Structure prediction request, 169 residues.
Amino acid sequence: GSLNLSKYILPDNSIDFVLLKKHVHCAVRFLDSVVSVNCYPSELIRDVNEEGRRIGLGIMGLADALTMLSIPYGSADSLKFVHDVFGFIFDEAKKYSAHLGKEKGLCRAAKDLGLPYRNYCVTTCAPTGTISLIAGASSGMEPFYSIMFESNRMDNTKMIFNNPFFEKA
Prediction:
């Protein structure tokens, strides 16, 4: 699961941490539920997944959010933004996993280590190619690939994407 960071930028260029916290908690609960209802190809794979209940909450739209804030990708200000926002997401995901641990029980890996979490791993930085295209967001943590690009689909149709941040340029 991925949160679109550009959706948390307020008109005054601050970050809506209240809404982000709410969505982090919702996403952790949802992703944890996916572990429970997933159909695994074998009992061994089910046991491995149940042991750690790894969920991997990630992001997309970083380049969009930085552009909205007029922060150059890769600058010191962008590194501070990433540190602050990712730190917040990680801390809230861990807190909510501890809440789920009290509600539903701890995963075996955390219990064995004396940790209070339902999920041994809560975040990830996975690429978001297709889902970011569907969401109309920049991909994962990457900078903009191009101002405009074309995607050739498997059904032999082409989709052209224009970056909305460059339409007025």
User: Anything to note?
Assistant: The two ends are 32 Å apart (CA to CA). The helical segments are 17-37, 43-52, 62-68, 76-104, 108-113, 129-135. The chain is about 45% helix and 10% strand. Residues 76-104 form the longest helix (29 residues).
